Amino acid sequence: MSGHPFGIDFGGSGIKGAPVDLGPGDFAADRVRIDTPQPSTPAAVAAVFADLLGRFPDSDAPVGVTVPAVVQHGVVRSAANIDASWVDTDADAIFTEATGRDVHVVNDADAAGLAEARYGAARGRAGLVIVTTLGTGIGSAIIVDGVLVPNSELGHLEVDGHDAESRAANSAREREDLTWAEWAERLTVYYAAVEALFSPDLFVVGGGVSKHAAEFLPLVDVRTPLVPATLRNRAGIVGAALYAAEAAGA
After folding, report:
1. What is the Cα–Cα distance from 214 to 202, expressed in whole angstroms?
2. Which strand ranges, in their side-by-side order, compose the sheet holding 75-76?
3. Looking at the chain, which terminus has fewer C-beta neighbours within 10 angstroms, N or C?
């Protein structure tokens, strides 16, 4: 096996990928982005993956793919922001056949969590770390002593009679034009609920809004330390490549 493992971040509007050097946890070449096909069926997306990987011909290393969905052993079990035809699709098998590479699919928040635990804000932290991504929804990853507990979906906890992400995601802040302080009150309610259930040692807060962490994180009143994610938009690709390499035993 030659070359660096490859990470692909599959989202609703774009498919981004790059080879990843797992030493420093960074791209080994420039990232490539291709628009997500519409409709984004598994077959259409597989064709884009084949095109993307064809631009990096000098590798047969494993490929990791993030999917905004619950993933059980390579099979996609939900489809919140992707085509409904993904449900119960063996994505590992479809993508492996389409690309001729060893492909492993992982939930997008779980990939970000793995990257932050290995290379980012939670590097070297023992115990229970919960990584959350605040965006259109709330993604989550549970990491215990560096080991991923997959598909936690903590954005869908019921808090005060609401699906948590409908009130506390960054999309809710934008939709309702909340101030940072108003949003921090909602985040306090959310993180306090997660804290009561899990008693984590650390919260890592990611998503694009994390670049404004100084505006709202100090206002979130919970016992557990909260720190902003550090890999930002590299986390999905890096975490996917790491997941694939470990799944393949590379």
Report:
1. 17
2. 71-72, 75-76, 89-90
3. N
Burial class (CB in 10 A: 0-12, 13-18, 19+), 113: buried
- From 2, 5, 77, 76, select the one nearest 45 (Cα to Cα): 76
For residue 116, being part of any structural domain is answered with no
> Per-residue pLDDT for 2 more than 70?
no
Which residue is associated with the tokens 């550090």? 230
pLDDT digits (tens, 9 = 90+) for 40-99: 999 999 999 999 999 998 888 999 999 989 999 999 999 877 788 999 999 999 999 999
Residue 226 and residue 128 in one domain = yes
Tell me, what CATH number does 70's domain have?
Answer: 3.30.420.40
Specify the DSSP class assigned to residue 159.
E
Number of domains in the chain: 2
Give the pLDDT band (50/70/90) at residue 18. very high
> Contact, 31 vs 16, CB < 8 A?
yes
| Spatial distance between the Cα atoms of 242 and 236, rounded to a whole number of angstroms | 10
Range of the structural domain that residue 36 is part of = 6-110+234-247
Spell out the residues 6+ positions from residue 170 whose beta carbon is closer than 8 angstroms to its own: 134, 135, 136, 207, 208, 209
Render pLDDT for 197-228 as a digit per residue (tens, 0 to 9).
999 999 999 999 999 999 999 999 999 999 99
Q: For 83-131, give the secondary structure using H, E and C.
A: CHHHCCEEHHHHHHHHHCCCEEEEEHHHHHHHHHHHHCCCCCCCCEEEE
CB atoms within 10 A of CB 42: 19
